[in-house]
């Protein structure tokens, strides 16, 4: 049997179809929507691919036009879909209603009975996870079903045992589960994680951590023996603790067209640079620049080139500590 292709990054999770109404429209009265593929794990894989790495997306889909739309969208960006076929289930959908204050942007999920919710390690081509340089998954995946929570654990363990660098982004979604359930499910996974990413607000609300971002990162790194912990702080940038050293990175200014997917762009940019041999500090800077570009682009995906990221870095470093 031939060995699987060794990708720089393999991600695992659900990719949905996103229907967006125009800014100022309401879902209940809009007559048109814009259709795009969207999912945290595939967003990160696309970012890595577009920024010079090789990437695959592991999932489970039915045989349907909607599923083929998702696979085609990923291939357009250079990502290889590695999909387990499903005779049951469907493609998940979400609806986006962009708005300013006081109403605010609203997301409506329609993802029950999605085929991916029943995905088990036995039906997935997990050899790609074991051969990859990096395996990435977010907390959205175990939130979708008990089966996926078990599968996520198994894939992290197999990746860790194979020497694949494991990356987990808590990526808490209150519409999917409670903070208590998220903590109960996700914290046991952290011991199999090399690089942990968590938003500061989620570290406080979900993980019940206290102190500033650096203290939170240090606490998580020590408690779970993570090589690197990155705490993101939105407009204030990010803080990372790596082997006991603290690195801070400011956010780059951006005119926001669509903020959805900014966090995924940050993680994808960070990993693309790290995979290229850069330090944690350099990778944070690259991730921040990638995230700023995403805010100027419609849809969930950061459709950029390495030269565009480098142009942002050339204009303004944004670094607090390099």
UniProtKB/TrEMBL annotation:
One of its GO terms (molecular function) is kinase activity. It holds the Pfam family PfkB. Keywords: Kinase, Transferase. Its EC number is 2.7.1.178. The keyword Transferase applies. Coiled coil: none annotated. Residues 8-297 form the Carbohydrate kinase PfkB domain. InterPro entries: Carb_kinase_PfkB-like, KDG_KDGal_kin_Halo, PfkB_dom, Ribokinase-like. Belongs to the carbohydrate kinase PfkB family. This is Bifunctional 2-dehydro-3-deoxygluconokinase/2-dehydro-3-deoxygalactonokinase.
């Amino acid at each position: 049997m031939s060995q699987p292709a060794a990708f720089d990054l393999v991600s695992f999770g659900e990719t949905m179809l996103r229907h967006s109404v125009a800014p100022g429209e309401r879902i209940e009265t809009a007559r048109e929507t814009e259709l795009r593929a969207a999912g945290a794990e595939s967003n990160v894989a696309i970012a890595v691919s577009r920024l010079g790495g090789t990437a695959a997306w592991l999932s489970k889909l039915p045989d349907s036009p909607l599923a083929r739309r998702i696979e085609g969208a990923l291939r357009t960006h250079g990502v290889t879909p590695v999909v387990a076929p499903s005779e049951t289930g469907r493609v998940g959908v979400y609806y986006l209603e962009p708005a300013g204050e006081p109403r605010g942007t609203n997301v409506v999920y329609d993802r029950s009975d999605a085929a991916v919710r029943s995905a088990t390690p036995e039906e997935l081509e997990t050899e790609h996870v074991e051969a990859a340089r990096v395996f990435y998954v977010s907390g959205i995946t175990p939130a979708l079903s008990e089966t996926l929570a078990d599968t996520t654990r198994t894939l992290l363990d197999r990746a860790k045992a194979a020497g694949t660098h494991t990356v987990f982004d808590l990526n808490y979604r209150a519409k999917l589960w409670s903070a208590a359930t998220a903590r109960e499910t996700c914290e046991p996974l952290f011991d199999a994680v090399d690089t942990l990413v968590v938003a500061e607000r989620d570290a406080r609300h979900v993980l019940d951590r206290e102190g500033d971002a650096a203290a939170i990162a240090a606490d998580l790194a020590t408690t779970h023996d993570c090589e690197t912990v990155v705490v993101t702080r939105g407009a204030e940038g990010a803080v990372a603790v790596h082997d006991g050293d603290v690195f801070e990175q400011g956010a780059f200014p951006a005119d926001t067209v669509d903020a959805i997917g900014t966090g995924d762009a940050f993680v994808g940019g960070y990993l693309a640079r790290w995979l290229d041999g850069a330090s944690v500090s350099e990778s944070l800077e690259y991730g921040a620049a990638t995230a700023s570009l995403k805010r100027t682009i419609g849809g969930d995906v950061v459709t950029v080139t390495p030269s565009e990221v480098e142009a942002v870095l050339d204009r303004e470093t944004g670094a607090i500590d390099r």
